[in-house]
Amino acid sequence: KMAATVKKTVAVEDVNVTFEDQKKINTFARNTNRMTEFKDEIEGKKKSLQNLQDASDDLMMAEDDTLLVPYQIGDVFISHTQEETQEMLEAAKELLQQEIKDLEGKVSKIQHLLGDLKVQLYAKFGNNINLEADES
């Protein structure tokens, strides 16, 4: 979790927190949480992608290519030829790769926004604000 907090012990000068400042701090916190959610989603999709790759590799090593392979669609397993199953695995992998790429793009945009906000907030509040992620 990320806590964007203005420290209570204000140093030598008293810094006034305006409504605009508060909006920036809230935007920073909200986007930090969104970025964490996207990163978790990316990890999950990468695991699914690896599982599809493993299934694809196992299928290629199958001796008898006349066997039908059960492929799960929703809650149901439907049997397909190995070639059909391989094509379905490839399509699923391509879809996941695109979803990962899209999520990584969102993370990148958020990182850029957070970088801008950090510069603005540290410029005004200096050491009186902490915008670093808690490593807990």
UniProtKB/TrEMBL annotation:
Q: Which GO terms describe its cellular component?
A: cytoplasm; prefoldin complex
Spell out the family assignment given in the record's similarity comment: Belongs to the prefoldin subunit beta family.
InterPro entries assigned: PFD_beta-like, PFDN4, Prefoldin
User: What does the annotation say about its assembly with partners?
Assistant: Heterohexamer of two PFD-alpha type and four PFD-beta type subunits. Interacts with URI1; the interaction is phosphorylation-dependent and occurs in a growth-dependent manner.
| Coiled-coil portions | 35-113
Task: From the UniProt record, report the name of the gene that encodes this protein.
Answer: PFDN4
Q: Its GO biological process terms?
A: protein folding
Identify this protein by name: Prefoldin subunit 4
Q: Name one Pfam family in it.
A: Prefoldin_2
Query: What domain of life?
Result: Eukaryota
Does the keyword section mention Zinc? no
